[in-house]
Amino acid sequence: MTQRGFPRGPTYGYDSSSQEANSAATLSLVFGILGVVLLPIVFGPLALWQAKKAERLGKPATAGKVLGWISIALVIIGIIGGIIFVIAMAMSANATASEARTASPASRPSTLVDRAALA
User: Fold this and answer.
1) Do the Cβ atoms of 28 and 50 come closer than 8 Å?
2) What is the b/e burial string over 46-67, where b = at least 16 CB atoms within 10 angstroms of the residue's CB?
3) pLDDT tens for residues 90-99?
4) What's the pTM?
5) Domain ranges of the chain
6) For 74-85, b where at least 16 C-beta lie within 10 A, e where not — what string?
7) What separation in angstroms does the CA of 21 have from each of 33, 43, 56, 83, 84?
8) Do residues 50 and 81 lie in contact, with contact meaning Cβ atoms separated by under 8 Å?
9) Are the C-beta atoms of 22 and 30 separated by less than 8 Å?
10) What is the per-residue pLDDT across 60-75, written as a single tens digit (0 to 9) for each?
């Protein structure tokens, strides 16, 4: 009840927790976009952290959470791809070195010096 006996009506506007929830949800979306586009190893976990904070405060942050997980998946795929690339390069270098050791002089391509010696 108010001073004159009228019941207090609903208050309009934002309280601090809903404003903080909106900020966390917005930051989650921004970090998720930056994680997919720019630097996933940094912004992916930040997006998930802000999404969790927003949901704890009662605001859904599904887009930020999904983009955060996509960013983390990109990091994992990049690490696995880098490992496969390094292994493939090492195997290729090893195969080339072993071929060079086992090749006979007749199977090697002739050079200008070899042609001059034959003439």
Assistant:
1) yes
2) bbbbbbbbbbebebebeebbbb
3) 999 888 877 7
4) 0.67
5) 18-97
6) ebeeeeeeeeee
7) 19, 19, 8, 40, 42
8) no
9) no
10) 999 999 999 999 999 9
